[in-house]
Amino acid sequence: MSKNSDLQKRRDASIARGISNQLPVFVERARNAEIWDVEGRRYVDFASGIAVVNTGHVHPRVQAAVAAQLEAFTHTCFMVTPYAVAVDLAERLNKLAPGPTAKKSIFVTTGAEAVENAIKIARAHTGRSGVIAFGGGFHGRTFMAMALTGKVAPYKAGFGPFPAEIYHAPFPIAYHGVSTRDSLEALEHLFKYDIEPTRVAAIIIEPVLGEGGFYIAPPEFLQALRKLCDQHGIVLVIDEIQTGFARTGRMFAIEYAGIEPDLMTMAKSLAGGFPLAAVVGKAAIMDAAAPGGLGGTYAGSPIACAAALAVLDVIETEHLCERARTIGETMAQSLRDAAKSLPAIGDVRNLGAMVAMELVQARDAHRPDADLTKALVKRAAANGLVILSCGLYGNVIRCLVPLTASEEIVREGLAILTQSLRELQRETIERTTAIA
Ligand SMILES: Cc1ncc(COP(=O)(O)O)c(C=O)c1O
Question: How many angstroms is it from 362 CA to the middle of ligand 1?
């Protein structure tokens, strides 16, 4: 038995099936945009651990910062005896968050926890309970985050009842016929049918749907949300957990809309692979919760904070925002070229290096091909590329290559991706011809 299949057997016997398992590839080592499995096979990494290592696996500067922190101390609990690395990081994030208003931050451990805390803060600030999120959005697996998530299977099925006063409006997705105007009208309908705006504490939105399929919210929609929130005293929460830290070609995707969020949630690439999340927002709102109301034993781990400071340095010194835009153009162009001879590619879209292709039958947006998408993830892995699927209908391939990847690695991964899709297309044609 191979090492991978042996480990897979042990994994299946020891880990509950609720934890999904995309590939039977057990990692031994990873560097920058490459992964080696326990059998010595090499993979190009277009997943970045789900948008976590924008600065690549084990970036030397992150590694050195973590090693130095490990020497100093690993945990005292920030709520008991605080430390400078967390304060340094808060100051830097407060400066990086868009808009002129003074900011404050809190640190927690996971993205879902950041979302939970953003809603707690918005409720404490407004004294209201309602929260509006969007169809197809993903905000995490804890109770409030799960309730806000706009996708039932597999995230919510069987886990109810959910916290009350959560409402969903459609996310504007031009490819599926939902315009900015449709989404804004749906919000007006919510205010008519379900809840008066004066009882809404927060509207939470991803500027680009992550798990939902890499659909990009039009800037005018985000600007309209800003106006709506100002008009009704609602806290606008921008979830940058997947889009943040140079991924989209800006430090934060919301910068493309030119608006100032009230609160932002951050996690994933913030700390280059160490569990760290943050809520960063307008100081007056952030201070609404009373002392002790926010926090956690591991909230703001010094190791993770040290890693995050190094990540921010790397983004700056290696010009990763610019690099993300170049990578995004290369990838989107290459996939658009491939689409000319691959009818399964219904749409290619990107914001910086957040690149996706939507797989459909016969170029028809209304005929999502989830089976092909699953098969492509497996085939690509067999050919040496790790990629992820996503999307409300499970038919989107998302590419999240580390922004530190070389041009050659990006091109190598693209070649494997398109070659894998060509193989599957040829096999489908051969099968259909054989049946006929
Ligand atoms: C936009 C967004 N919000 C929240 C989360 C939840 O983050 P975590 O898995 O760290 O709890 C995710 C994770 O994929 C995400 O993409």
Answer: 32
